[in-house]
Amino acid sequence: MNLNQLRYFECVGRLENYTRAARELHVSQPSLTTAIHKLEAELKLTLFVKQGRHIVLTSTGQQLLLVVQQSLQTLDDGVAQVIATNSQQPIKLRVGCIPTVIGTFLPQVLHEFEQAHPQQVTFELHSVTTEQVQSGLAAKTFDLGIAAADTREAGMHYQPLLKQPFIVIVAPTHPLANRRQLDLADLTDYPVLTYSPELLIGQKVQRTLQRQGVASQLKLRAAYPDELSIAGMVQSSLAVGLVADTLYLAAFDLVKIPVTVPEDLRVIYAMYRAANPQHAALQQLFQLFNSRTTTEDASN
């Protein structure tokens, strides 16, 4: 039994899927399958069983997965700590972040972290979509992701950072501009512009409208990639925008109106894989995030 076999087992056990595990590990599926079979033979244990076209962990496999994950985490933490303590080169953390955070909350926190750890950590920032953050973490091209996360994956650490509530945006001359608050049902007389359902945030809007029972009543135009495009269309029309309250909206002459929806449209998280070799530095960064967690004031 060697370290590669344990890392292979951890990945296959966490995902319960050889194809996805091979993609994440950058190895061929046959070689990964062979490594797992050799591990089972060496341990004289059955770690996986087939259920139809899928594989699942046995109870023995589940027990071993917990032990292996804890052991690999301890090893990775120790190696990262030794490197950080003795290396003359600073650790570089690659950060994938959605645009609404990369220009406000994030730089201040990262600058504070760099000052507290001079010449130990540097950051490489990438402004990307939520979908690209998630794929970058899976492919290990990002060490840290800052984005929305409607579901939580096993083997990931999450820290909530910002809440962006649902709001309605209208032009100052719009008939609804003087309202202090709106229900979704108040929007039925106007075209409602919102995010494309190809985006995670667009999918969340669709689910919310369905749950509130108004999806079929609205003149919905769900075709837009971001708040900028929605605000630009709303600014000179009778349409209304249903968006997250973000800093992008400050550039437009619009009225923002709270809408009575019992949930936030988007919660922004910091996230990283537990198996990341820079776990120790990321854990320290999470402690700083935790002390600075706030609700975004999109008007700033």
What does this structure look like?
The chain is α/β, with parallel strands linked by helices. The protein has 3 domains: 3-84, Winged helix-like DNA-binding domain superfamily/Winged helix DNA-binding domain (Arc Repressor Mutant, subunit A); 87-162 and 267-292, D-Maltodextrin-Binding Protein, domain 2; 163-265, D-Maltodextrin-Binding Protein, domain 2 (3-Layer(aba) Sandwich), CATH 3.40.190.290. Helices cover 41% and strands 24% of the residues. It has 10 helices and 11 strands. The protein has helices spanning 3-15, 18-25, 29-43, 59-86, 99-102, 105-116, 130-138, 200-211, 227-234, 279-292; strands at residues 48-51, 54-57, 91-97, 121-127, 144-148, 156-170, 191-195, 219-224, 240-244, 255-258, 264-273. The strands form 2 sheets. Strands 3, 4, 5, 6, 7, 8, 9, 10 and 11 form a 9-stranded mixed β-sheet that branches. α8 links the parallel β7 and β8. The model is unreliable at 294-300 (pLDDT under 50). Keywords: DNA-binding, Transcription, Transcription regulation. One of its GO terms (molecular function) is DNA-binding transcription factor activity. It comes from Levilactobacillus brevis (Lactobacillus brevis). InterPro entries: LysR_HTH_N, LysR_subst-bd, WH-like_DNA-bd_sf, WH_DNA-bd_sf. Residues 1-58 form the HTH lysR-type domain.
